[in-house]
Amino acid sequence: MNIPQTSLAWAYDLVKTKIEKATNEPLGKVLHNHPFFEEKENYKYEISTTARDIMMTKRWQKDFIIGEGNIKAKVLETMMKTVGYNGKNHTNNLVNWRKKDDFKKLKNTKQVETIFFNFFKSKIKDEVSFQRMEDLNLSYQMIAYLFFIKTPKKYLPISQQKFDKIFKTLQVDFKTSGQRSWENYTQYNQFIKQTKTFLAQYHEKPSLIDAHSFLWYVIDHDNETDAVNTDKSPVQKEKTSQEVRTIIKQELYAPKALQEKVTINEELLNKTHVDFIALQIKKQEIGDKAEQIVLAHERHFLKINGRSDLADRIKHVANDYKLGYDILSFELDGTEKQIEVKALSAQNGRKAFYLSANELKKSQILNNYYLYGVTNLDATTPDILKIQKPNFEEETLYQLVPITYKVFFD
Known about the structure:
By secondary structure, the chain is an alpha+beta fold. The protein has helices at residues 5-23, 35-40, 43-55, 62-65, 70-80, 97-105, 110-120, 126-135, 140-150, 160-169, 182-199, 208-216, 266-270, 276-304, 308-311, 357-365, and strands at 83-85, 88-90, 315-316, 327-330, 336-343, 345-347, 350-352, 369-375, 383-388.
């Protein structure tokens, strides 16, 4: 299982824009040299280094230390230690405070210390160590932390609920909450390794921690509390569809020419005799603006990912009604994609748009058809909802409401 390359490309564009907008500094060749990462993320390097200095595993002697409580005490010290990095003190937030308390309560037995001794001295395979830590009922987050401080070039810490949101945003059907296991943790690290490989296209020798930090900013963590994972809770299965769906809140800089405010004339709507011609003109203006926003986004996305050749080939074909879509664009690998653009409205809290019979037909027969629903057209960064190969006749996802009919009679 891999993260789709198109999702990583989208995520890179998003995170790069967020960071450069926040700092007014280009991302640069070396990720961890950027001021944003220096301030917010690079303390993780210091945590892993400080933890290994505290543990001093090279000095451990089996007959001298096992059963005396020293190993557990050292592990706990690594979690409680405040580290200094870049002129600031950082608490160890890689383990939730409740998990630290649970670890304190863990009985100090020879069995417990033997497990830690064998793990940190690499006396047994990592897979076996993971299972034995599970048997101690250590949380997934705690186990991941221990693997990280032992081998940060191979393993990463985890925050299950937040990474579940990240994977969902990246169109990956993968969950870590309630899924504590060696297989799950291995796949989790594989996703981060894949991200590291992707980042190497743009940056010099990114580390796994760089990739971990990059993925962290795919979603917005503002106003979120640090959730406590529930390793033994049942996995809540969500309803899924057989169709491939891509739903992404997209941020972009709209060209100034596209930032003119588009509004419905309220006086016109309130008239007893509605001027439907004027309404249709205003509706067309809104639709045209949505299409221009998507055109700008598609060209920007391809160019920033090194495909200016494809960006130059994008076509605006909305006037050719028989095609059943508005924009001919491309995936990063050169595959054509047909995009129908809709300016979304809201009715009773639900998103809505109009769909012609021809557009419905084309959505069913075109191999790489997308619906791009645009909202917040007046904003500097409009929102784009992307749905790949939507099945509009799937009643659990969409509701088709007949608006007009063509009537034949003799």
